[in-house]
Design brief:
The chain is mainly α and 312 residues long. 80% of the residues lie in helices and 0% in strands. This is DUF2232 domain-containing protein. Keywords: Membrane, Transmembrane, Transmembrane helix.
Length: 312
């Protein structure tokens, strides 16, 4: 993958071609689209926001042209999805990370935007639950065999149960994919221009007790009231602490000289049981925000630019 990053950074034309190419591939295999986002972020981290916007604008045009050639009259939604929902947030967050050199600030900003999107969705769509049920049926109903009325009713019931939480779930998934693209881009940047810097930077991720308290309060409100909106916002913050939990596991493995197979086992479990591992690692991240486990175990942690200043 480092070869791909090196290729893309040779010239703007190569960067545009790589972003558009992986963007098109991502329409057929969605996880591949993260690579195109990572390339946009890499351009932004290395060359600045203006260059990243130029690359994503041209790549969006190429993507639209390719789709129009394959199916005339249909490029609009795909270009909007790629350029606005996928590439633009990555470019903006890459610029923020480039200026602040702080994952804490960058992730908080990403969560703030995701949360604002959920609130805007609820404000603009009076009956959001009915909207998600209709959208889900339009998308998934064709997969149900014709004549299977019971299956369609079961699908509609499942969507009705999930509908109150879908806006937050989708916002959290988008935030996670954008952050993953940022992490890949930061790794590439370090590999090409500052070897070894990414590992120390990621292992130092610490969001702090303030965000942790907000997540706990939202979760408590969501469970006790109950409030689907509070649960949606709690899930978005949960994504951040899921990442902090992963960073802590890397820090412990590195700091204690443990075998890398501990990390391999963690990622295998994530692949096999992601919901359970998400809850476990997010909970560990919330605890670490208060307990600072690295410090208690004598593992050095480089200060993040967004950390509070040390006490005198």
């Amino acid at each position: 993958m480092q070869i791909l990053a090196e290729f893309a950074m040779k010239s703007r034309g190569r960067a545009v071609g790589a972003v558009a190419g992986f963007g098109i591939a991502g329409l057929f295999l969605p996880p591949v689209s993260i690579v195109s986002s990572a390339l946009v972020a890499l351009v932004g981290l290395r060359l600045g926001l203006t260059q990243a916007l130029i690359v994503l604008a041209i790549a969006s045009g190429l993507l639209g042209a390719a789709l129009w050639g394959a199916s005339p009259g249909t490029p609009g939604p795909a270009v909007l999805l790629a350029g606005v929902i996928q590439w633009l947030p990555v470019a903006l967050l890459a610029e923020l990370l480039r200026r602040t050199v702080s994952w804490r600030i960058t992730l908080k900003a990403g969560a703030l935007v995701a949360g604002a999107g959920v609130l805007l969705m609820h404000a603009l769509v009076p009956d959001a639950e009915a909207f998600w049920v209709r959208a889900g049926m339009e998308l998934l109903a064709p997969l149900v065999e014709t004549g299977e009325a019971a299956a369609r009713e079961e699908l509609e019931a499942v969507l009705a149960d999930l509908a109150p939480y879908l806006a937050g779930l989708l916002a959290g998934i988008v935030l996670l994919s954008v952050t993953l693209a940022m992490l890949i881009a930061r790794y590439w940047q370090a590999a090409l221009y500052n070897p070894g810097a990414f590992g120390a930077e990621f292992r130092a991720l610490q969001l702090g007790p303030g965000v942790s308290a907000a997540a706990v309060v939202l979760l408590a409100v969501g469970q006790l009231v109950p409030s689907p909106l509070a649960m949606e916002l709690a899930f978005i913050l949960g994504v951040l602490f899921f990442l902090q939990g992963i960073a802590l596991m890397h820090a412990l493995t590195h700091g204690q000289g443990m075998s890398v197979f501990w990390l391999v086992g963690m990622y295998v479990l994530m692949a096999l049981a992601l919901p359970q591992m998400f809850l476990l690692l997010a909970s560990i991240g919330v605890i670490d925000a208060w307990a600072d486990i690295r410090r208690r175990m004598g593992i050095g942690r480089e200060r993040d630019a967004g950390d509070d200043p040390p006490e005198s």
